[in-house]
């Protein structure tokens, strides 16, 4: 029997297919903004994330992809609320954890340890009044109370090195770092506890393309090394075609297409996906053809 | 710039913690909502706020009531200077609703006339404050450069010098003080804080697109200031005005209490001064010194409530959350209840079928 | 470093401005203070020594031909030497002596009360802002009204309730002048001082705490919608840690930066309050001076009050530079 499309393994650079277990399962998730009249930001969304996979989540602004990410992580704030559905995390030791059932202490302990997040626009994601070191140490102090100060220092320096930031920057404050550096620090923080899933919400949108490329290469390299799964949220579909194993396209709160990157590139099924694909001008092809006829995507 | 961050914080504090109105809204869950509401015009929001929030309605109602009191009642009472009544009558005695003072003046008459004096001074001083702060703040903030540096320096110096002592020094040199003079002194010493807040806002507006467009189109700076910038500062300026009025009323009360207020007029402050000089406390004449203070507090509090509501209109972040947090808790509570009800219903079912 | 130097220079400039104001005002405003003063002296029957004459001329202007500039320099000179003149109403006491007696009372009372009020206001305000949408929000209208209550009226009320009616606290004074002739370093005296200072301190705290509470609450609410708070929550940090280090530390910055404005109100209130309680501080001294047309004393107190306020602001600025790294590094 053929496995359903959603359960296909992820691809490696050398073309070999790696059979993978699911690490995160979302079933029939619906999220509303409880105002007058109610806004249905996410409607009946189901998806499965496999171990080590990069799942791209594409769509325009306002389609609900960020809301979905926040919902998965139980970060929704009033007036947003999870109206229906379950999110299950499959730990690598075999246990299943229902995210909806976590509250208070258990939720706090779960966060960052199993699933971490890199937010949109790191411009403001760092506390402006305490040092980078303090913010990295925060993570360790909370989740690994057994670590000594020396261990925390070593680990922090190692993390910064891994993302390509000079360890001396531990003494710096957020405003002393460039945008690209801040984003790298955020990624380092997200890696700190070796999570199994990283959710990245437009991590490179606010940066220039050269810096963007550098950061993406870091992410790919780190994933090779640590084998965490990534949900990569962006409106930049061509980018996802480059780096994702599978892509989910969202429109007005629903997933309209979910397939491997190749299939979407060559044979997009849903008309919205097709429109999205043709909305990006390409570097090849005749000049002006995009504007006049929409060709060349 | 080091001073920049302090200025921002100063402005944030002075405007009651509200931050610049039109910020770039990103697509985060709460922000989506704020973005939605932001598109509605200020006056529409005022109307919405009026219906939704009891604070604004209560505040406005109280202000109107007190103003009416000071405008209408004086027509029905004796002159506040008439001293032909017996001294220190308790409320209700001899036809005096609020009793009389030690010198024999009717307290109600003094209260009503005094209200006129206090309000007049408050409004005038508030107006002077707003005009001066717009001049020093907005003009400096928009034009920038040396003009701005100098104006800002003057504002900072005046801000730091303690207000009441300065007012006392002024007042002490002038023997005959009219209501207008007192209002002038109050206004001249209190505009600096407002100026800095408005300047901070004007500076951020200066870099907005529509202002840049006007500059490129060749409009004169004064026209830009009056047509583009000031209308956008109106809510903030209104809040500063109300704040200034409250401060002026309190300031006048303090000055008068010290005997440095308007000579020859009655205000709530002069009433309190008379009360202290007439040993109202030790004589237990509570009807004399309590009403003026209560009215000052009520008027000041009411104006502050209105101010607070304006703050919530300007800064949507202060609004979204309180009511919605409650509604989410409500929804969750109902959800839990219905689940419990469903569970017990199923248990009942089981009992029936087993 | 540059930050602190700039602030210090600014305060120096402000002090100079205050001194100059003292010089300019009596010469500018209607009424001739110098003549009034000298006439009053003559009426009092006191002898007008050349030293007194000189002092009055320096402060209030002369009628002889000396240019304004030379007067100004002489005036600046005597200020820098610490000579604030001679008090007319308490002749022959030096102004500096009188101020020296009154200053500690004001510093202790107003200083302590302000610190208590600030800390209380900021912490409670932060807590109310943290717990949005619960009962805590209902305190807000109450504190709004309390903020509008005139200090001195509140003082009158407190005296009426606690001193006149209940007799728990003394009505006037800084200490019991029947028991102690002069301030002494004894425990009994200290207890007496605290007993006398309770109502005044309570007045200051009650009327100023509302302002800081409100401001802090608003700022906390604003701060809670910042991205780094969401990040901190996503990191699974403990709520207490997020509250103190991520929320309060950022939300408190405007309150500290805006201490200037608030302090102005506190000073104003305490002057009037000292009058109500007949408390032997700077405020009362200033009012006495005004009532007695003792301009030298009045100007001197004004300068000292200004100096104290500037010093307090500078201390707050240094504190701000300590806790906000952005201020230290940029320029």
Automatic annotation (TrEMBL), chain A:
<keyword id="KW-0813">Transport</keyword>
<keyword id="KW-1278">Translocase</keyword>
<keyword id="KW-0472">Membrane</keyword>
<dbReference type="GO" id="GO:0005886">
    <property type="term" value="C:plasma membrane"/>
</dbReference>
<dbReference type="InterPro" id="IPR003593">
    <property type="entry name" value="AAA+_ATPase"/>
</dbReference>
<dbReference type="InterPro" id="IPR050388">
    <property type="entry name" value="ABC_Ni/Peptide_Import"/>
</dbReference>
<keyword id="KW-0067">ATP-binding</keyword>
<keyword id="KW-0547">Nucleotide-binding</keyword>
<dbReference type="InterPro" id="IPR003439">
    <property type="entry name" value="ABC_transporter-like_ATP-bd"/>
</dbReference>
<comment type="similarity">
    <text>Belongs to the ABC transporter superfamily.</text>
</comment>
<dbReference type="GO" id="GO:0016887">
    <property type="term" value="F:ATP hydrolysis activity"/>
</dbReference>
<feature type="domain" description="ABC transporter">
    <location>
        <begin position="26"/>
        <end position="277"/>
    </location>
</feature>
<dbReference type="InterPro" id="IPR013563">
    <property type="entry name" value="Oligopep_ABC_C"/>
</dbReference>
<dbReference type="GO" id="GO:0005524">
    <property type="term" value="F:ATP binding"/>
</dbReference>
<dbReference type="InterPro" id="IPR027417">
    <property type="entry name" value="P-loop_NTPase"/>
</dbReference>
<dbReference type="GO" id="GO:0015833">
    <property type="term" value="P:peptide transport"/>
</dbReference>
<keyword id="KW-1003">Cell membrane</keyword>
<protein>
    <submittedName>
        <fullName>ABC transporter ATP-binding protein</fullName>
    </submittedName>
</protein>
<dbReference type="Pfam" id="PF08352">
    <property type="entry name" value="oligo_HPY"/>
</dbReference>
<dbReference type="InterPro" id="IPR017871">
    <property type="entry name" value="ABC_transporter-like_CS"/>
</dbReference>
<dbReference type="Pfam" id="PF00005">
    <property type="entry name" value="ABC_tran"/>
</dbReference>
<keyword id="KW-0997">Cell inner membrane</keyword>
